[in-house]
Amino acid sequence: MHQAEEPPLMDLLKPIVRYVTDPLYLRRDGYVFRRHSRELEASQWFSAEALAALQARRLNEMLEHCYRHNAFHRARMDAAGIIPSDIRGPADLAQLPLLTKDDIRNAGPQLFSTGYSADNTLHTRTGGSTGVPLHVYVDTEAMNWKYAATRRHNAWAGWRPGDKVAAVWGDTDKGLHWKTWLRSRLQDRAIYLDTLKFSTERLRQFHARMRDFRPTVLMGHAHSVYQFALYCQEHGLRLPPLNGVITTAMTLSELERRCIEEATGARVFNRYGCEELSIIASESEAHSGLHVFSEGLVIEYLPTEVDGEYELVITDLLNQAMPMIRYAIGDVARKAGGACPSGRGLERLARVSGRTADFLYRPDGTPVFGISLLDTYIIHIPGIHQAQMVQNDPYRIEVRVVPTAEFGPQTEQAIQKVVAGEFGADVQAVVSRVARLEQTERGKYRFSVCNISRPRQP
After folding, report:
1. For the segment 48-101, what is each residue's pLDDT rounded down to a tens digit?
2. Could you tell me which CATH class the domain 13-353 is placed in?
3. Which CATH architecture has domain 362-450?
4. pTM for the complete prediction?
């Protein structure tokens, strides 16, 4: 892997952004952001014990805040018969109920703490797998912390203020104010490929723009970055030198990681986050799991019926405007054991496996993790460019395939063999050839879709 080189003509804007405009932009809230950045640069090297103590203190502060200033969470604590001092650490959080997405939608403004409203907070929105939007509001202090954490994690991938970025996102220009557009081009120094408008011509144009723009980092939705990398490989297109590739928003398979790294000549730094909480975990230069933003979050691991897979429940330690206590985010992950070779004491996830909504079911009600089935078997079958599994019936699995030239009867037979082996001989595999897989409103792909309730186990 190589470090990005400067083009023959020096990038004159980089030092101006790095040493002048970026520091001035970050001073809009005084020196708060700079202080947070310094603290996070230091705390990533704390021991696991020191970080646990920091989490416990911030958890206590957040619960005290909720009890005094947030009627919604106060009512939940009262109903559970506890006060903040009863929760001495993350292990005691199970005394409180989970906060679901429906809870957030139904509570609406009741989730605001005293003194906060939509007028003095920052709004984030996610469409979610159901298509029903989820609205969350974040106070400025919390957002400064989250932004500082994001920049710390960006630095792990070789980014520095003033560096150029090529981003593969969905719906990049929708509702973009001219000031935001200008900052994107001059301050953030980014070019975009809109994943909702993928086509061979747009992929070609984006490659040409990257060649001229010469970014330091490529980042975007994991599968969309993979699609771009695959296009470059298939057409023999070289990319300018990159320090790193940041993939996020979707599950990253090992096949996709290898393809991206081969096409770009740079290492992949996988990331996990969401609109509601911002950054959650990222790979460092050690590439030994994903480091959790432990200074700002507490993660609980609820066992699932799939060995080694845990449903994540996350408590935000920073957002006092709309506290997220025991948020059932709906994601499934594996824990990483042992210390990280990088020397950081931050908690680690081995990998984020997918969403609880990605579970498909055998007729007897036992779950099958659809994403893992695709990653491990189906996408390796010759003739498959992309694949999606959809379950509308306990005895029928539809496998939608974007085919390659190799697709034939043997492809369908191989798919049917995998489905029968995993779900049972009574389950029919129906293979449908499609021109493209549908995307969500944010340009993401869902590779495993379950539209049935879990069958009752005998």
Report:
1. 999 999 999 999 999 999 999 999 999 999 999 999 999 999 999 999 999 999
2. alpha beta
3. 2-Layer Sandwich (3.30)
4. 0.80
